[in-house]
Design goal:
This protein is α+β, with helices and mostly antiparallel strands. The strands form two sheets. A five-stranded antiparallel beta sheet has the order 2-3-4-5-6, with no helix packed on it. The protein has a four-stranded antiparallel beta sheet with strand order 1-9-8-7. Helix 10 packs antiparallel against helix 11 and helix 12 packs antiparallel against helix 13. The longest helix has about 35 residues. It starts with a helix and ends in a 15-residue tail after the last helix.
């Protein structure tokens, strides 16, 4: 009798064949003008989603029922795990996560097939063919090197269990969101390659590319923020970002995708920066592929990385060479045939967006060098060096600072030719409020750190600048309040979303500045009944007791948190030992407030019976994740703009490839 796992394996092989068909037939049809062949890509994309979905469902079923005859389940699951972690265990390993990767890729391809009806048939066929080629490469990688349905005979009675640090709600949802961002950039890549083949990039093309890029950017924003939140409260080190190479691998495509969103606006509005926008589309997905390589090649040692053999990394490196090298070669060949587009002076909306793009890309380059230089040096010379936060703080910060200053100004500049003095005049209230907040912060702590007033002033500049943008568009203060409200409701949602996203960036900057410059850390050994102060708060170690969970044992420490004489909460910090691996983890005690968190980590026992403790006060740290949520909301509002729901007007002679301009 055929098992569900075997059905999943068979569906995966069929999906490989369908991906090959989706790559070859529509591309051939677009070149020959064969309508039937071009339309074949639509049904192939839908069928590929069905087949990969069946395969993924089969693997998920094996995890839920603890089918240890499947090697992947035996190595990464355990019958005592809670259901949530059985399901998340599907993508908590290399093979399953790659299956999730191609499932999301197939989902995006099917979305283009269903929602891309307003696309010219030739362009849609080429986009689906490029998507099919990416799916073909990674399905081939899975089938040949990373088959999640390998069987083990005889099956073990019990599995090895999932990595304990991954058994957390945030980590259950972090990878799907992150992959949705990574893989979503493949659509922008496919549109760019299709446009280069066709030899045409125009405002309609930008209108089609922008919402797909925005979707990927939104998911990438949430995925990175969720991973940061998990690292903050799960790893017990008190920070939110460590410039880990795998953290950087997700941050770099986010930076380029942010530049791409803004660059596509210039193509759409002014028919300019076309060549640059196509290049950004290629680079954004190329960086996503590079992140996939770093995580799965075995070249990195990281809490985020999958421990896999270098042979798999070599296969992914080959995929990188084909897609990155091939697309850049095509770009070098075809880009000169694209017209440069509209002209503009440096002081203009376009000029501001060019500065935005350049600074984001230079910042990405700084992160790229800091991430890959140690690997390249070790490969060439054998020397090992560590590039950590000091390098990134000294390079990334000075690059991003001018960008944060320019963001509010750009929104007030006119297209083609702007007036900087007029823009600053409209921003004088926002500037005055930002300066006032900077001076207020300085007055609170005149002894420093000296960057704090500057940083908080810049954060306020971003928030108040976004408010000023909406106030100017609605005539707030110049017309009756009811009229302003009606104008606000009538504004394009993309305009509102842009302002909201910029305000979210300001909120995030405030949180980053606060925790970076004002965090308080106390390391102390406490016995039951003893106390320690962290800032204005007092933490008393009440004692510890045995702990038992569904698949772990350990000890839990209880702590009384007080502010002066007022009791705030009883915190719990746990030391867990997971079955069956015996791996220890630490759960922090966390008390969250609007203005900051008190963070307690119970360490190991000392020789005199005390416990080593690390206590933190992290001011405004939750502004970081709240800002990310606001940025996501801004993206969602922009995505709901009627222009993107209706789509761009069809090109003339849509069925025929356009001649190179």
């Amino acid at each position: 009798m055929i098992s569900i796992a075997e059905i999943g394996h068979f569906a995966l092989i069929l999906a490989l064949g369908v991906a090959l068909y989706q790559f070859v037939v529509p591309l051939w049809g677009a070149q020959r003008g064969d309508v039937a062949a071009m339309r074949a890509g639509i049904s192939a994309a839908l069928l590929q989603l069905v087949l990969v979905g069946i395969s993924f469902a089969a693997l998920t079923h094996a995890y839920i029922v603890s089918d240890f005859s499947v090697l992947n389940v035996a190595e990464n699951s355990h019958s005592a795990k809670p259901l949530l972690y059985k399901i998340s265990g599907v993508w908590g390993n290399h093979e399953g996560s790659m299956l999730l990767w191609v499932l999301i890729l197939a989902l995006y391809g099917a979305a283009v097939a269903v929602f891309g009806q307003n696309l010219p048939l030739g362009l849609r066929a080429r986009v689906l063919a490029i998507q099919g080629s990416v799916g073909l490469a990674f399905l081939l990688f899975i089938v040949m090197t990373s088959n999640p349905f390998l069987r083990v005979v005889p099956p073990p009675v019990e599995g090895n269990g999932l990595n304990p640090i991954l058994q957390d709600p945030a980590l259950a949802f972090h990878p799907p969101f992150l992959y949705a961002g990574y893989v979503g950039l493949s659509i922008a890549f496919a549109f760019a390659v299709a446009a280069l083949i066709e030899g045409r990039v125009d405002a309609a093309w930008a209108r089609w590319v922008r919402p797909w890029t925005l979707v990927a950017w939104m998911f990438l924003t949430v995925g990175i923020a969720m991973g940061s939140w998990w690292a903050y409260y799960e790893l017990g080190w008190g920070g939110w970002w460590f410039w880990d190479p795998v953290e950087n691998a997700s941050f770099m495509p986010w930076l380029v995708a942010t530049a791409l969103i803004h660059s596509a606006v210039v193509v759409e509005k002014r028919n300019a920066l076309k060549i640059w926008t196509v290049l950004l589309s290629i680079l954004a997905f190329s960086l996503s592929l590079m992140g996939t390589f770093l995580v799965r090649s075995g070249v990195l040692t990281s809490v985020h990385a999958f421990a896999v053999d270098p042979d798999r990394g070599l296969f992914i490196l080959l995929i990188l060479c084909v897609f990155i090298g091939g697309s850049l070669s095509l770009f070098a060949w075809r880009a000169p045939t694209l017209k440069a587009g509209g002209l503009f002076v440096p002081v203009s909306r376009e000029g501001g967006l060019v500065i935005n793009n350049l600074l984001l890309c230079v910042a990405c380059l700084a992160v790229f060098v800091g991430t890959l230089y140690p690997l390249a040096l070790e490969t060439v010379t054998g020397d090992k060096i560590s590039v950590g936060p000091p390098y990134f703080n000294l390079t990334f910060g000075p690059i991003i600072l001018p960008l944060l200053l320019v963001v509010p100004v750009g929104a007030f500049l006119a297209w083609k030719r702007g007036d900087l003095r007029l823009a600053l005049k409209r921003l004088w209230i926002a500037l005055a409020l930002a300066v006032a907040i900077g001076l207020f912060v300085l007055a609170l702590d005149v002894r420093g750190p000296w960057l704090a007033p500057v940083g908080m002033g810049i954060a306020a500049w971003l928030v108040f600048g976004a408010i000023a943008d909406l106030a100017a568009k609605t005539g707030l203060g110049k017309v009756p309040l009811a009229t302003s409200f009606h104008r606000l409701v009538g504004l394009p949602r993309a305009a509102i979303g842009t302002a909201v996203a910029h305000a979210g960036l300001g909120i995030m900057v405030a949180g980053i500045i606060a925790i970076s410059l004002w965090r308080i850390e106390v390391i102390v050994a406490l016995k039951p009944g003893e106390s320690a102060a962290v800032g204005k708060y007092n933490v008393t170690f009440i004692g510890e007791q045995p702990l038992s969970g569904p698949n772990y044992t350990g000890k839990v420490g209880n702590f009384l948190l007080k502010e002066g004489d007022r009791e705030l909460a009883t915190l719990r910090s746990e030391k867990r030992i997971f079955k069956p691996s015996g791996m220890p983890t630490t759960e922090v005690g966390l008390y969250q407030m609007l203005l900051g968190d008190v963070y307690v980590v119970m360490g190991d026992e000392t020789t005199d019976g005390a416990r080593a403790m690390r206590l933190y006060y992290n001011p405004l740290v939750n502004f970081i994740w709240f800002g990310a949520i606001v940025m996501f909301l801004g993206g969602f509002l922009s995505l709901s703009d009627r222009r993107y729901r209706v789509g761009a007007p069809k090109r003339a002679a849509a069925l025929q490839p356009a001649a190179a301009e």
